[in-house]
Amino acid sequence: MTGAGDAVATVCIDCRYIGPRPSGIAEVVRGLVDHLPGLAPDLRFLLLRHPAHPGSLSDAPNVAEQVVAHPANGPATMWWLPRVADLTGVDLFHATFNTMPAGLAMPCVVTIHDIMRLTNPGWCRTGLRGAVEQGFYGHGLRRAIRSADAIAAISGATASAVAAFHPPAAARTAVTLSGVSARFRPGITEPARLAALGLTPGRPFVLTVGQDAPYKNHPGVMRAFAIAFGADPRIDLVIVQRRGRGSGALDRLARDLGIAGRVRFLPAVDTDALVMLYQAACVLLHPSFAEGFGNPVAEAMACGCPVVTSDTSAMPEVAGGAALLADPHDSASIADRLLAVMRDPALAAGMRAAGLVRVQSLQWRDFALANLAIYRRVLARGPARYFGQRFSRDHSVNVRT
User: Fold this and answer.
1) What average pLDDT does the segment 246-272 reach?
2) Which overall architecture, per CATH, does domain 191-361 show?
3) Domain extents in the chain
4) CA-based R_g, the chain, Å
5) Dmax of the chain from CA atoms?
6) Domain 10-179+363-394, what fold?
7) Do domains 10-179+363-394 and 191-361 have the same CATH topology?
8) DSSP letter at 86?
9) pLDDT band at residue 268 using 50, 70 and 90 as cut-offs
10) What is the mean predicted confidence (pLDDT) over 362-369?
11) pLDDT tens across 287-298, in order?
12) CB proximity list for 151: less than 8 A, separation 6 or greater
């Protein structure tokens, strides 16, 4: 164990979000897997792997992997992970997706992406399933905020939200700013590839990327587009979205706004297609009510696409002055920003250049280094101190925020 002479510490990272479906959290975990083994050759890493992942996650010599059949977001992970995964010899556990498993016999670092389910549950999934998810994820988030040995917040905005929700957690929270993959880069779009997605090559479009969830503000996207371009039939709106319960309402809104014939919904696409869409778009519109980080903002900038996004939460932090910001609740303000980009080629060119500079500061290697610094601080405390702290925290059942 850590602190016993020259023994090598083992860090377990839950990597099960790297699976068959792309997601922002999977990108974050990939940033750890790709860089940590090389940055810390003095540590061993145990990676918990999704059973559908093809092959190993890493070929580094200080990495071992273990397939865990149970889903990342399921009861087994939340309440009895040590029973379904062999954590023998693990000195530090890294829970990478907001919630902290119960019953861990070692220190735990939790990556918190956002805490909307605690602060603004109405922005997340609604209905019966939303209520179930609210109880489930809210439970795991509260445990993480209350009991994790360290919290890795993917943005300063998330760190501030955690501190506001539960002030004692601030001392255990560090910012590990997310990055953007080198796969997102400028390029020339092939017309045939756009046509294969059902788009008209050469026809200008505004792009929006995000899941079907209230916080993504897709009705606001449509209203702003209609204000800006309702009278200009030359411009389309392309929304890349895993369609869900709200999809019918968006279809009706498009008809009511008179833009139904110019709204193109695309299902979740692979990374190559997403890069192509960023490269081809005139502007990315991302007016979320809140984001833990906001991957599309960074991805679009990395592809040389101008960005219009919200003036709140993590989005100004991620944009770093390279985007135009608007109040996400003010469709007219969003429309003004869209028109500014579309009507002023010099402004758009300047935004493209500024975005490419900004993303140079959003490197996954730096993200991994920030997490490694957290690991070393927690490991340096030693097991004796840790177990005393764990006992007192796990039995503080009356903690409220």
Assistant:
1) 91
2) 3-Layer(aba) Sandwich (3.40)
3) 10-179+363-394, 191-361
4) 22
5) 73
6) Rossmann fold (3.40.50)
7) yes
8) -
9) confident
10) 97
11) 999 999 999 999
12) 109, 110, 111, 112, 144, 145, 159, 162, 169, 172, 173, 174
What are the Cα distances from residue 116, in Å, to 18, 199, 313? 22, 34, 11
**241, pLDDT greater than 70:** yes
pLDDT of residue 135: 77
Q: How far is CA 128 from the centre of its chain?
A: 24
> Could you tell me how many residues make up the chain?
401
Residues 139 and 118: their CA atoms lie apart, in Å, by 9
What pLDDT sits at residue 2?
A: 42
pTM, 2 dp: 0.89
pLDDT top residue among 169 and 393: 169
Place of tokens 């059949």: 69
DSSP run (H or E) holding 15: none
339 to each of 209, 241, 263, 302, 385, how far by Cα in Å? Answer: 19, 24, 18, 22, 58
Contact, 120 vs 290, CB < 8 A? yes
From its phi and psi, is residue 202 left (phi > 0), alpha (psi between -120 and 50) or beta? Answer: left
Count of helix runs (H) and strand runs (E) in the chain: 15, 13
CA gap 305, 353 in Å, rounded:
9
Contact residues for 132 (Cβ-Cβ < 8 A; gap 6+): none
Tell me the pLDDT tens digit for each residue of 368-395: 999 999 999 999 987 643 443 443 333 3
pLDDT above 60 (res 102) = yes
